[in-house]
Amino acid sequence: MIDRVLDLGVAEIAGRHPSLAGFLAGLGAWDDDPEQPFAGWLAAVEDARLFDMGMERAQVTAHVGALLRQVTQWQNAPAPVIHALCVRGGRDKAGRPETLDLILRPGDVVCLVGPTGAGKSRLLADIECLAQGDTPSGRHVLVNGAPPDPALRFASPRTLIAQVSQTMSFVVDLGVGAFITMHAECRMVPDVEARVREVIACANALAGEPFTPETALTQLSGGQSRALMIADTALLSASPVVLIDEIENAGIDRQKALDLLVARDKIVLISTHDPLLALLGGRRLVIQQGAVAAVIETSERERTCLAALAQVDQGLMGLRERLRHGGRIEALPAWPAPP
Amino acid sequence: MRLIIVAGPPSVGKTSVIVRTAAVLGQGGPRVGVLKFDALATDDDTVYRAAGLPVVAGLSGSLCPDHFFVSNIDDGLAWGKGQGFDFLIAESAGLCNRCSPHLHGVLGVCVVDALSGVHTPRKIGPMLRLADVVVITKGDIVSQAEREVFAYNVRLANPRAAVLFFNGITGQGAGDLAFHARLAQPQDSLEGRRLRFSMPSAVCPYCVGETTVGREHQRGAVRKMSFETPAGESA
Ligand SMILES: Nc1nc2c(ncn2[C@@H]2O[C@H](COP(=O)(O)OP(=O)(O)OP(=O)(O)O)[C@@H](O)[C@H]2O)c(=O)[nH]1
Ligand SMILES: [Mg+2]
């Protein structure tokens, strides 16, 4: 395959294989003569120019071959389908056995609660690396009921868990539209433009204050960034598991954010102590001393409380709006009676 | 003894990655030692010692750090063998993006930092392009989308390498890098080994001590830029 590709004109290669276009342009082959067969260009170009690119002649051919194989593999490899992730207990920090047989399925929302240092990160790291008794916790993670295929475990880069946290920000110096387009292109989705519009519309539905595709990423407010991160993760990330870390103060619609992720069949893990978020989940894992000490199913009574809490939350939001518009708080909304 | 060469631009997290990975490699008994190469000054040796890792640090001073690395790596290997290490990890300075310390037959790791911008992988050159493993640090402070675009660009720049994310602060990812380190070839000597990419052969007047600016001082291998008048402007 590689020989046939090398005999094509430079512009034609770039047209057929967009992922190679950047490389060919970087070599300068494009500027020299876009119509010339690449093999001919490579044979004729002076050593010094290749050297400036940090490559020897044979390395250029090998690189193009490897790139083509890589891209074909990306296009043909199906995303791993996960029906169930099972976490089997290991041991806590004192070496005592952990009783745990947790099954996570697409659409599950599970909260992690416990003091800082209790072992939340360890649990997430175990899931992320599909631990096989070889991490400090000794846990085992099964994929669809069996130990993971090494090809999945050591996939490169492994992207089982997508993460959205309060400490993350956008650092790239681009507009929202341009960057999300770049992300969509590298995910090789069919209709890039439509997908980008969808991501931005979703993000605007989650954040109060709207932004446009032209807004610079680095100028987004905290709430807008978090909203964009969640919309992008739901609609463009390949990861089947999404971890959300401390977004209670981000100023976004939490219920809508979870609905969006659940609708995309993500397994959602939330590290939080916010009662509203915690009760939105189906289960809570109580983490103590490096082990899961209890799994609490959200009860019917808790769901009733959630409805009241949501009303309180709405009430508080209304008060914030009032302040924002220069109003006074001399009357309170009707708080719900405790159920 | 297995040798691992770790390169990467300044402050990307090479030392953090090595310390965390060495802790995993050393579990259950194997001995891990470190060689640190830098240009002018380094505190890394104190960091390694504090982590309980035996270390020798070398400063290239007035020499090109990458040339200095190649001239000393074989002696470093002999030192490590003499110490009875199971793993020897060499941290190299990687200052100019033009050179690369990677040797044929020796596990080459390049560390890059997700904060440095999504286009950086294209600019790093042979140090990244010819590595066996590319480690991406500082993913904990950028968005998921930027991590994914960054990793994609790394794989376009080096389609052969294993690519992994590493949090140098928590050590997440150390298990994966240790997995690759355990697969490194045992090395007896590096005598006769080849660099994966040759270093610049030219020595310009300023390499050998010239300090004066100006055409008449520039004898030997000198390359001049061409300065053209931008289109549409008159000279
Ligand atoms: N947030 C974050 N910080 C990191 C990470 N990895 C390293 N750092 C920090 O980055 C700084 C530089 O890390 P080092 O490990 O000293 O980097 P280095 O590449 O060895 O630096 P030089 O040897 O001086 O070139 C330190 O303050 C680390 O704590 C990471 O994954 N996330
Ligand atoms: Mg260092």
From TrEMBL, chain A:
Domain ABC transporter span(s) in chain numbering: 82-314
Top-rank lineage group of the source organism: Bacteria
Alphabetized GO MF terms: ATP binding; ATP hydrolysis activity
Pfam families listed in its UniProt record: ABC_tran
Keyword entries, A-Z: ATP-binding, Nucleotide-binding, Transport
Family: Belongs to the ABC transporter superfamily.
Protein name: ABC transporter
TrEMBL record, chain B:
Gene Ontology terms, MF aspect: GTPase activity; nickel cation binding; zinc ion binding
Family annotation (Gene3D superfamilies): P-loop containing nucleotide triphosphate hydrolases
Pfam families reported for this sequence: cobW
Domain CobW/HypB/UreG nucleotide-binding: start-end pairs: 4-164
Listed InterPro entries: CobW/HypB/UreG_nucleotide-bd, Hyd_mat_HypB, P-loop_NTPase
GO biological process: protein maturation
Protein name according to UniProt: Hydrogenase maturation factor HypB
Organism: Pararhodospirillum oryzae
